Amino acid sequence: MQPKQSTFSERQAASAAAKQALLAKFKPKPAVQAAEAIDHDAERRERIEAVRRQRLEEKMDRQRAREEAAAAAEAARLEALAEAERQRLANELSVDAQKRAERKERKKAIKDAARAKKEAREATRPAARGEERVLDPIQEHERYIRSLERRRA
Asked: CB of 92 within 8 A of CB of 84?
């Protein structure tokens, strides 16, 4: 506070000085100037470019992962096709082998039947002169019984 003995003009001068001090607080103070001006646009462009590079790398990684997955799927598909073909060939071979075995059995049965028929035909054929016929004694006996029955009838 001011002393009581101050005059009006002193009080007025003090008031003006206080107002000037109050206004001085709001005036811009001289700022420290940087040696080089900061280029905020360049910094912004660099940040944008870094983000673009990062996104491009992520995009390339995703693309590479998709291509690898597609290649793996194609390889699996080709392997499955090859396995199916191997199974088909194995089945064909087993079916062919089974058919071949059945064919051999049929031929053997036909051959055995033909041999038995031929032997039966030769057994019933009268023996040529000087040739001795060798027959099964049971068959010979049955033939003898049939010949006796024919005579009776």
From this structure: no
Are 135 and 119 in contact by the 8 Å Cβ rule? The answer is no
Amino acid at 130: G
**What is the C-alpha separation between 105 and 112, in angstroms, rounded?**
10
Task: Give the DSSP H or E segment for 45.
Answer: helix 40-124
Per-residue pLDDT in tens (0 to 9) along the chain, 153 residues: 555 677 889 889 999 999 999 998 888 888 777 778 888 899 999 999 999 999 999 999 999 999 999 999 999 999 999 999 999 988 888 888 889 999 999 999 999 999 998 888 877 776 655 555 656 788 788 888 888 888 887
Q: The pTM is what?
A: 0.38
Per the structure block, which two tokens stand in for 52? 């673009």
